[in-house]
């Protein structure tokens, strides 16, 4: 057989499960960062706009691997420094999963900020005004009128970003988290068949990206009322 | 937090050495990547199902899997086969430097091929008809009309891809290469100052991207000068 995993197959599957958890956790946090970032970038206040612009420019210009390494090796130092302002002086440890999720969410959030910002700009200002004239509060307007449209416009862009995020999860193997890539390394070291294991990992990543594409397409369909219920 | 500027100052020559390697990796992979991407894009746009399918599979694999897997497949994976170890390729494949360049080249060629294909298909059909009407043969048409026009269309998108490759080149550090990130990791292993050194490394990447963005702007102004120069000129 071309690819003999010598009983290490379950290792790869458990790694894939960890990869999925890593990707979904980063996605959830990254989406929140992206929405907040877009709101900050579009706000009239320079105290929000400037930090948000700085954030997206800096993060998008720095390698994701560098972010992962920085947060893993320097995260504890940063957190302890931040905590010292609140009078907390105990030792804080940052695990590989937490550092990985933080780094990936920060990277995803920077790109998602741009996607949401573009989508928010697409919704005509008049809709805010008409919702207001119907007596809706700003919050109601956002959640009932603006957000559903922003979401619809943002899904294709976010889908692409999620593909990038999914592939970037492999970087977290560098700091020792037992995700798919790391488990492939373990298997290849034990069996001396690196090609088989990395190829198997590559195929699992392909399957995951295909799955992500499929889910994005379903979400896109659901977000368009005119297509809902119609067969593909 | 005690932030130590002096450690950045002391080790900046080493980081600059790393920056040179990063530039080398990205520059070489960029050139090889384009050389591969053009035929790939032409294959992908061709009507021949076999050529089209091959190009499609290649692009699908390299865009759908993490670059790290691709690097490891080449660097560690190649050693699994005795046939490879005995072949003339081994002196190249045992060097992390060339493995990184091969992986980056294949990766970026897949992304660029899609961009170039999009650009070729975006050339107004009339221009190709005019070339036909002037009696150009297929090769002349590709050389004088299609590629120059595609270059102008593809440049903004390609500059994006090139910057992404600059960032991806940090992965070279995972196979022992001392690029900016690799150098930073070695320095940190000695000084235990991760925040300062990674900060300095990040700044280097930012400066390099800024310079590259400027260079691509200039190039775009030159290639698309027919769009910017007034008619009297």
Automatic annotation (TrEMBL), chain A:
One of its GO terms (cellular component) is ATP-binding cassette (ABC) transporter complex. PROSITE patterns: ABC_TM1 (PS50928). Belongs to the binding-protein-dependent transport system permease family. HisMQ subfamily. Gene3D superfamilies: MetI-like. Coiled coil: none annotated. Residues 16-216 form the ABC transmembrane type-1 domain. GO terms for molecular function: transmembrane transporter activity. GO terms for biological process: amino acid transport. It is a multi-pass membrane protein. Pfam families: BPD_transp_1. This is ABC transporter permease subunit. The chain crosses the membrane at residues 20-40, 52-74, 94-112, 197-219. It is found in: Cell inner membrane; Cell membrane. Keywords: Amino-acid transport, Cell inner membrane, Cell membrane, Membrane, Transmembrane, Transmembrane helix, Transport.
């Amino acid at each position: 057989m071309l690819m003999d995993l010598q009983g290490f197959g379950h290792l790869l599957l458990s790694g894939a499960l960890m990869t999925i958890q890593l990707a979904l956790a980063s996605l959830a946090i990254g989406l929140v960062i992206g929405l907040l970032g877009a709101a900050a970038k579009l706000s009239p206040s320079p105290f929000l706009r400037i930090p948000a612009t700085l954030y997206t420019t800096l993060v998008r210009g720095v390698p994701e691997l560098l972010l992962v390494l920085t947060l893993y090796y320097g995260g504890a130092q940063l957190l302890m420094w931040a905590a010292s302002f609140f009078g907390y002086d105990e030792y804080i440890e940052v695990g590989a999963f937490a550092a990985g999720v933080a780094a990936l969410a920060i990277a995803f959030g920077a790109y998602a900020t741009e996607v949401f910002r573009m989508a928010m700009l697409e919704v005509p200002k008049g809709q805010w005004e008409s919702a207001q004239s119907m007596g809706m509060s700003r919050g109601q307007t956002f959640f009932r009128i603006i957000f559903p449209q922003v979401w619809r416009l943002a899904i294709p862009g976010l889908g692409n970003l999620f593909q990038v995020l999914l592939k970037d999860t492999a970087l977290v193997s560098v700091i020792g988290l037992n995700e798919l890539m790391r488990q492939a390394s373990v298997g290849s070291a034990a069996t001396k068949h690196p090609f088989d294991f990395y190829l198997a990992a590559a195929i699992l990543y392909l399957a995951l990206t295909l799955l992500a594409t499929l889910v994005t397409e379903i979400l896109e369909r659901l977000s368009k009322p005119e297509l809902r219920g119609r067969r593909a | 937090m005690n932030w130590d500027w002096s450690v950045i100052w002391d080790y900046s020559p080493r980081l600059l050495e790393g920056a040179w390697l990063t530039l080398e990796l990205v520059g070489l992979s960029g050139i090889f990547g384009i050389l591969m991407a053009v035929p790939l894009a032409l294959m992908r746009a061709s009507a021949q199902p076999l050529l089209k399918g091959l190009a499609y599979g290649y692009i699908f694999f390299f865009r759908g899997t993490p670059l790290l897997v691709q690097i490891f497949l080449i660097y560690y994976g190649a050693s699994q086969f005795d046939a490879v170890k005995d072949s003339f390729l081994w002196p190249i494949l045992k060097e992390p430097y060339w493995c990184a360049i091969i992986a980056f080249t294949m990766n970026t060629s897949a992304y660029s091929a899609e961009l170039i294909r999009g650009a070729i298909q975006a050339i107004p059909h009339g221009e190709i008809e005019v070339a036909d009407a002037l009696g150009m043969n297929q090769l002349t048409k590709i050389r004088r009309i299609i590629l120059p026009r595609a270059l102008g269309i593809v440049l903004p998108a390609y500059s994006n891809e090139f910057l992404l490759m600059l960032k991806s080149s940090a992965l070279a550090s995972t196979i022992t290469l001392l690029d900016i990130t690799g150098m930073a990791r070695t320095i940190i292993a000695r000084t235990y100052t991760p925040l300062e050194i990674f900060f300095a490394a990040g700044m280097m990447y930012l400066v390099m991207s800024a310079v590259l963005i400027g260079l691509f702007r200039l190039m775009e102004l030159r290639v698309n000068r027919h769009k910017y120069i007034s008619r009297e000129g």
